[in-house]
Design goal:
The chain has 248 residues and is mainly α. The chain has two domains: 87 residues, Orthogonal Bundle (Multidrug-efflux Transporter Regulator, Chain: A, Domain 2), CATH 1.10.1660.10; 140 residues, no CATH class. It is 60% helix and 4% strand. It contains eleven helices and five strands. The strands form two sheets. Strands 3-5-4 form a three-stranded antiparallel beta sheet. The chain has a two-stranded antiparallel sheet with strand order 1-2. Helix 4 crosses helix 5, helix 8 packs across helix 11 and helix 9 runs antiparallel to helix 10. The N terminus and C terminus are likely disordered.
Length: 248
């Protein structure tokens, strides 16, 4: 955990080395002063040392450039930083209606009701996210092989458990309550999620091989892209029997 944290960040001395070529007057005391004035907010390591991410270094560069080239007071620079951060915030994800979800995923009302019943698709108010559309399209593609929503309850449960594991790992970083710490936690969470998905694919591949169901040599399990799933699902509304529910 500490090693991952250190790799993602620079210490204050490393920041000086990074910026001194452009700003010869930069010093540790100046960086600390800018922090005390609220212009930067570096994360802290578990032992209390400042840790600067790439966003912190860019912000320092922005502040120092504004001071050197435009002679701006810190109050004005702070206002510009606030506008800059507001403009950089990601837009809210696009939401779609129930009808659009049904049409795009190629499923019917009954299938969508089953997805909601088993916790595979969740709506926000009366709308659905793009993630809900991707899930619905994937389930519609699985339905071509006789796999139905009720068979996928364990997948939902496993995904929730993996998210809980990731949250436990990044919790110490999130407790620092700064934008930089949240960014670091997000990067770590994404890395862990990717590793878990890779591990899942390897385990399934190995289990299939043991069952005598391995694919061609060198073939690796790769999930189809959501767009491809939607295209397949749109043309296949009918399902065929193929999988029995052991829990029924």
């Amino acid at each position: 955990m500490n090693g991952q944290f250190a790799r993602a960040y620079l210490g204050i001395g490393e920041v000086l080395v990074e910026l001194r070529g452009e700003f010869p007057d930069i010093s540790v005391s100046k960086i600390r002063f800018l922090e005390s004035e609220g212009l930067i907010n570096p994360a802290r390591s578990p032992s209390g040392y400042r840790r600067f991410g790439s966003a912190d270094v860019d912000q320092l560069r922005f502040i120092l450039t504004a001071q050197r080239d435009q002679y701006l007071p810190l109050r004005v620079i702070k206002e510009r930083l606030q506008h800059r951060e507001a403009a950089a915030r990601p837009a809210q994800p696009e939401m779609i209606s129930r009808r659009d979800l049904l049409d795009s995923a190629g499923i019917g009302e009954q299938q969508l009701a089953e997805l909601e019943e088993h916790g595979l698709v969740r709506k926000v108010g009366r709308l659905y996210s793009q993630d809900a559309l991707d899930v619905a399209a994937a389930v519609a593609a699985l339905a071509e092989h006789g796999v139905q929503a009720r068979h996928l309850r364990t997948v939902r449960i496993a995904a929730d458990k993996e998210v809980s594991l990731i949250e436990q790992v990044v919790a110490p970083t999130l407790r620092q309550r700064s934008p930089q710490a949240r960014e670091a936690a997000g990067m770590t969470a994404g890395e862990i999620a990717g590793l878990l998905m890779r591990l899942h694919a390897v385990l399934v591949d190995a289990a299939l091989a043991e069952a005598g169901l391995a694919g061609p040599p060198g073939d690796v399990l790769v999930a189809p892209q959501p767009g491809a799933l939607r295209g397949r699902a749109a043309g296949a509304r009918e399902t065929r029997p193929g999988v029995t529910d052991a829990t029924a």
